[in-house]
Amino acid sequence: MAYVRKVRTASGAVAVQVVRKHRGQREILAHVGSAHTDAQLGVLLERARRIATGDQQVLDIEVAARTQRIDAVADWRAGELMAAPAGPKGAPAPPGPHRGDQFAVALRRPQHGL
Length: 114
Prior knowledge:
Elements: E1 3-8, E2 14-22, E3 25-35, H1 38-53, H2 102-108
Antiparallel strand pairs: 1-2, 2-3
């Protein structure tokens, strides 16, 4: 099964790709293009969805697609994680990283030779 992937490029654009997992490896089926604006991203995502579904019949339920934004794609060049969207006012905060969290520890570790 193919799916649509958005990834930030070195130039800061957002690349839209159609990929699938095959034997544990990600295989890029099509590079649809790179977007520099929200409008371009919307066009590329629609093209990618058509490629990903191929000849499959798609159930058209008339659900409006959520608008995609360039700034919602993580930017690996900054070396920081994006903040999670805030919940409703008064909702409990999600648990944050703690000392034993290996991912948080790896983020704090200086990266040499990059």
